[in-house]
Amino acid sequence: MRRNLLAVREAGRPVVAVLAAGGVVAGVLVGWPGLDTVNGCGLSSEKYPSQTAQDWVRNADVVVVARADEERESGREELGAGAYSYRLERTVDMSVEDKAFESSERSHPTVGGELGYVGAGWKVRRSDGKTRVDDLTGDAPRVVPGHTYVLALRWEEEKWVPLGEGSVVPFDGQEGGRGEWCGQVLEPDDYAHGERLGRSSDHSMEKALLGKGRPALKQALDRAARKES
Questions:
Q1: Closest alpha carbon to 114 in 15, 171, 29, 18
Q2: Residue 6 CA: distances (Å) to CA of 17, 36, 131, 134
Q3: 164, 139 Cβ separation under 8 angstroms
Q4: Which of 4, 50, 82, 85 has its CA nearest to residue 165?
Q5: Model confidence over 182-203: pLDDT tens digits?
Q6: Which residue has the higher pLDDT, 34 or 1?
Q7: Beta bridge mates, 71
Q8: Residue ranges of region Disordered (predicted)?
Q9: Euclidean distance between CA atoms 34 and 137, whole angstroms
Q10: What is the pLDDT of residues 90-128, one digit of tens each?
Q11: Cβ 147 vs Cβ 179: under 8 Å
Q12: Residues ≥6 apart with Cβ < 8 Å to 165
């Protein structure tokens, strides 16, 4: 669903690591970048249809419940002009708590107990050369340590990638819509307002999981999988 615009937050102290040149290894997720806006949550975009349970079982190789544990800088790009001197890549290490769905339609690696998520990172202010500002996109929640998410993922170009903006749902406390969304920590009612989930025509997984737990997730995916068979 289309995201509202929320305020940019300053990031915390960096944890630095280096990725090998030439790309990321198997088991690393890459968040699809949206178009950034000055005041935070960017415009949404879709690599694959990602809104409904039918979209998830058609396009995802796996759907997991995973907790973000740690984040680190994993690369940087120098910016030639403007208010920021660098754009920093960010990798989030995630613990997989549950695998709610796995497709048999395409070959893909087995999902283990851990994944690395390369998503929206930071920009460094040119004025002092050290202040970092969060990059936020409309594709999905930022995915930050200490929070749990439902993620619909696809194996593509030797990486695990989310389908699009509808394929990552906040899931703190095993409750859909509770947790981090667009860099902010929200309750389900606030998440529903931000995602505009009140419309009767909305059949998104974001709405289907609102205020619900793993049984609702598995029920929705099982029902969609039966329709596909």
A1: 29
A2: 29, 12, 20, 12
A3: yes
A4: 50
A5: 888 999 988 887 666 656 667 8
A6: 1
A7: 92
A8: 192-229
A9: 5
A10: 888 999 999 999 998 888 988 999 988 877 789 999 999
A11: yes
A12: 1, 3, 34, 44, 45, 46, 50, 138, 139, 140
Confidence of residue 5 (pLDDT cuts 50, 70, 90): very low
**CA–centroid distance for 36 within its chain:** 15
Condensed to tens digits (0 to 9), the pLDDT of residues 24-34 reads: 333 455 554 43
Q: Which amino acid is at 18?
A: V
Rounded CA-CA distance 164/49 in Å is 7
Q: Under the phi-then-psi rule, with left for phi > 0, alpha for psi from -120 to 50, and beta for the rest, what region is 135?
A: beta
Per residue in 38-78, pLDDT (tens digit) is: 234 655 667 899 999 999 999 999 999 999 999 999 889 99
CB 134 within 8 A of CB 9: yes
What does the pLDDT read at residue 198? 59
Task: Name the pLDDT band for 11 (thresholds 50, 70, 90).
Answer: very low
Distance CA(181)–CA(187), nearest Å, equals: 10
